[in-house]
Structure formats: C-alpha cells, structure tokens
Amino acid sequence: MKKIVTTLLLLATIGAHAQETQLFDNDWRFHRGGAQGADKAAFDDTQWRIVDLPHDWSIEDLPGTASPFNRDAVSQASGGFTTGGTGWYRKTFTLPVTQKGKRIQVQFDGIYMNAEVWINGKRLGKHPYGYTSFYYDVTDRVKFGEQNVLAVKVRNEGENSRWYAGSGIYRHVWLKVMDPVHVAQWGTYITTPEVNAAAAKVHVQTKVMNETSSTAAVKVITHLMDANGKEVVTATDTRELTPGAVATWEQDLAVRKPALWSVQSPVLYTAVTEVYRQQQLTDRTVTPFGIRSITIDAVNGFRLNGQPLKLKGGCVHHDNGPLGAKAYDRAEERKVELLKASGYNAVRCAHNPPSPAFLDACDRLGMLVIDEAFDTWEDGKNPDDYHLYFKDWWKKDVESMVYRDRNHPAIIMWSTGNEIPNREKPEVVEVAKALSSFIRTLDTTRFVTCGVNGVTEDKDAFLATLDVAGYNYARDKYQTDHQRLPQRVMFATESLPLEAFDYWMGVADHPWVIGDFVWTAFDYIGEASIGWLGYWQEQGFYPWNLAYCGDIDVCGWKRPQSYYRDVLWKEGQVSVFVKPPQPSFATNPHKVDWSRWEWHDVLASWNWENTAQPLEVEVYSSCEQVELSLNGRSLGKKATNRSNKFTATWQVPYQAGTLKATGYNGRKAVSNAVLQTAGEPAKINMVADRMAIRANGQDLSYITVELQDANGVRHTKADNQVHFDVEGPGTIVGVGNANPLSKESYQLPQRNAWQGRCLVIVKSSGQAGNIVVKASASGLQSSQVSIAVR
User: N or C: which end of the chain has fewer CB within 10 A?
Assistant: First the structure.
C-alpha cells in the first residue's frame, strides 16, 4: 500500500517541478511577403493577420483568388503548382518577474525553410533545413515583467523541393522555462541492451547542465513507471558538477517480467528523471520509452523481440492533404491509425525527419519507423535545395534528428538519404561513410540504411556503408545479389503499386529480404500526376496537383490498390472494381516506360450507361475462390491464388442493380463485396471520425460527407457543390475531395464532391461546448453532425 501511495504522489507532482514547457502556438502575427524592419521590436505589426500554429501559407488561397494553385508557380508540378515566397511571423509575450533567474529557451519543431530568428531585435541565428527541430537559449535577451517580441523570417524560395513542402512555421513552437541546473536539451537517452521475457536491462543516460556560478552536488533519480503509472524500479546517483559544466549520468535498471513493446502490443514505459541541487529539486522530465529488442541478419531476417517479422511498409511524405504541411497532432495520429487499419506495420519517412507528433503516434499505435535524414547531399536535385547547405549543416541536422528521436521504440532504422546522385563515385562513398559513422556515434541500437536506386555492382561500395541495403525498384536483384553477397540484408525502400504482388512475394520467399515499402502509402500534394501522366513532367500537366499514386488518398480513403494490398497481407479479403469504358482522365502519349507509379484504372462503381460492350470486372481476393453474381444470378466461380496474382476477372454486360463478389474457402462463404447502382442523389450523409474532441484549440474531427440516393447508396458520379456552416467552439481548417485535378480552395466552407463524397475538417477552440457542422447542397436533403468539445 505504501508503494502505491508513493507512486501516486510522484505522478501527482510531476508537473510541479518539471521543466515548464508551454505550447507557444497561439496569437502570432503573420505577413506574407517582405517586411523590412520586422526584426525590430518596435516594428508596427498591428495590420498583420493573426494566426495560430501550425501554419502553412502555401495551402492558403493565393491573394485575390479562391485557389492555392497557379500554373505559373515556381514550384511547378514538383510542388503541386503551389507558391512559396517569403513570410514573417511575430509573437509578443510577457514573462513573469518570478521567472527571473531561470533559463529560458524557445524550440521550433520545424520551419520550412531558411528560418531566421530574432528576439527583441537581436538576432538568434538561422536554420536552413526545413525538417529538423532547433532551439535557442534566450535567457540573456529577454525581459521579465515587460513585453518581448519574437520575430521569424521564413524563405521558401526558388526550386528547392521535389514534392510539396509547405511554407512557414508548420510544426509546434515551445517555450521552456528551466532551473539553471537541469536536464540538457534531448539529454535523456534510454536503451534496452538486454531483453527477455524474464527480465530486461534498461540503460539510462542523463545529461545535466549546471548553468550557475558555483559548484553543486547534483543528484539524479530515475524512476521507471509501467503503463499503469506504477513505479517498477528506481536508480539514484550523486556527483559534483562545476560551474558551466555538462555531465552524463549512466544508470542501469532491471525490470522484472517486462511488458515488451511490439506492433501488436505497443506497451510504453515512462522514465521520470529528477534532478536535485543541494537536496533541492530543480528539474523533473518525463520520457516515454519501450522495452524491445531488434535484430537483422540474412538468415533470420528482421526480428522484433526475437520473433521474425516482415515489414509491411509504405513511404510517407509529411503533408496532411487538405491541411497542407500543418502538423496538428491529431492529423499525424490519424495518418498512423489509417495505415494500421490497412495492414501496415512500418513506414519510411520520405525523405526527411517527421514531426515529433507523428513519432509519438507510431509509438502509441505500434508502427515501426525508418527515420530519414535527407533527399540530397552535396549534389543537388534542384537548384535551390539542401545541397547548398549540406557541407555546413549535415552534422547539426543529423544530431537534431537522432538526439530528438532516439528514445522512440518505433524507430528501427536511421536512413542517411534517398537516391543520392553519383553513388558509384568514391567521393560520394566517403560522404556515405561519414554519415553512417556519425550516426553510429550518436546511437548504436539501430541500423543504418539508405534508399538506393540503380542498384548495380558499381554501387557495392556505397551499399557497404550501410547495415541494411535499401533497394529502390530493384526486386530483380534480390536473388542475384544474394548469390554474390549472401550476408547482405535488403528490402524495397521503394516499390511500384502495379508490381505489388511480385514485390511482396520477393519478401515472403526470401529471408534476406525483410520488407517492402510502397511508393506511396499515402497520396500527397506535389510530384503532380506521377500516378497517371507520369514522367517527364511539364507545365502542361496543370491543373494536376496531387501525385495520385498513394494506397490511401489525401482525404484518408482507401484507393483500389489499397484493397489489393489487403489481399496480399490479410486472409479472407474480397473487393470488386470495374474498368470504365473510357479512361478516367486524359492520358499522356509521351509517358516514358519506366514511369509506372499508377494503378489499374478501375472504380468501385456500378453506375454506368448501357453500353454495347461488356464491362471488365476485377475481383481481388485472398480466399481460395470467388463467385461473381449480378442481381442474384451467378456469373461463375474462379480461383484466386498466386497463379493469377489473387485476381479474377469477368466480362459483364451492364445491368443496373447489385454486383456482388463472394469469397469461398472450400464450400464456406467467407466474405463479400458489393457494388450497387445508385439512384439520383437525394440527400447528404455525414460521418465524423470522432464525436468528441479536446477543447485545446488544436484537436480535429474529420467528417466524411457522402451524396446518397433515397436508399442511402452513395452516388459515385455525383459532383454537387456542398456548403458548410459551423456553430459553436470550432472552425473549419480544411476541406477536400481527393480529386487530383481540383483547383478548389482548401480553406473556403464549400467543396465539390468527387466520386460522390468530400471531406470537411473542424478544429476545436479553447472553449468547451458542441460544434454543429451543417452541410447543404442545392436540391438535396441537408445534414448535420454535432461534435462534443471537452
């Protein structure tokens, strides 16, 4: 009983003496364009717009228009025809006099890009890379009891990205107030060097700073808490720390019968670190972590906690579709939830470190992660990309990635980059060695990889710098390379949806091939139309603005290729699709042969005109056989197995009604999929993914809006414009429909349906209550949904 009471008291006081970390996202003033003198504290910004972070000005409508897209945008197809430029942010704040004597720090989770920061007119520094976190100690430059002004200039200029990056302070900002004796930034490092069912050894490194003018006796106590908040073990160490010194405490703690973190059971422990100076508590930090082991070799493949696990992976860009690059915690969490629901157990962060919120969600939900550093090194892919800064900044950015992220149990590999040019050259191999070696000085518990294209023998020296060879589009090398180099472990860092069967069979059949990461798991803005018009891209591709190659579209809805992947990864799956009589979009007669990121042109629709020619129907199934029926009449059974890549096809004369595919194992019907002809659109149906959200000014609810006939069947050709009204403590922060050619605003309270549906995203305010979202369209019965804000 005494132990439980002590634990509860410890948890209750965590916030009382912790590093006081304040979310610094609200009430910034923003100006799009130049603002000479805006770095000065006295600058008049009263005419600037007030915004809350995360913020991305490239997803907003261009001035004087109702669209963020422009055929003449510098970004062109790569950036989805969106516009960057220069933007300024300013925030005025007051620190209480009681905080004088504390250390004050400002942390930015991510700014795209070329950020310059000032406080009270004094320059703090610059940060070119748009994807790594950075921070400044501003203690000597702030005033207590008076107004302070934090100013940030952001320059997203020129051709600097191969995909949509967004513009601005698109991740969180934090204000930290700390005692002069405190845990250093990202100063806790937790590893689990010994793990088994009976016991685990947890090693905790704690870096402590003494920013006082006197020597101090500093005691560090580390409490390990289980998932229920119960303390399981404690370690205590004391040492002298001289003025200005930084020292690292090394503590080993034994955990009996640990609950292991896995993709099926992502159990998290918490390390509560207390720092005492002369017996006075000065700091307390809280670090979630997982107890798990990972191994990789060419015989046993990838093993998590000693159990073999094939990586069912997908590459993921950082944007959040209708929200642009804005990294709301809920948007990041929802992305992981949707991937888990579609069978994924791993993601590759392409091609940059993700937001902390994304990694937190992967930890909680059980999603393995490859954390990637760069898309380019010294040789650029665009005139204004990161190659301009690589030599001066790569070590700082790698440190930021690894130090910030190395306590996440979800991360299993660090990636040094993607498709680096001139991989066969000795000087590039030397850079590869330097990157891999440097990462291993920061973290020895994970493996190093890189996405490599053009895998041939002249890339062997480059691949030898890695622990795991990342193969982009090279499944044809799995067996021949294994014969040459039997110890090499490989996996598809990128693969083509059209070849999903062949890629996955390569994983299933070969233990040295540990996984497959499709390009891509989620669709994204930019690289416009690679999933249809393909390469080479040109200005004439406008108004295409989405890549249109993801398993899941930008609204979070599964595309046909995702249902096919279900068949490869799950038992008892059946889905049915129809090839339209005419192509869904105009095709590109100049598309090159190797550009194959599309999927078959098929739709989940049974609304067609009566045609003389039968329609081709595809059924994907992991059952032994499937039966197709039209209006209750059987069209026959067909086997679905490896011989036909789990796909059966029929030629079906069109007849309105119900098309049904039923999967059988033996004589037993296992599952079915149905397409039904819809009547004329008659009503709107709204379904929210969450009926209750937090009143924190950040939480989101995603509402799917369908146009249905009188019987509740979605009309897959309906494209009516839907208007939205919101009442209560919330606002609309995004609308979308996943149409890759739509130029519509993501901001206005309206959206045309595409394939009979659209999406509206609402954000809570800081007040409790009910958000009522109403949807209406001309000639249709309207609808509404109520979201509780607590």
Answer: N
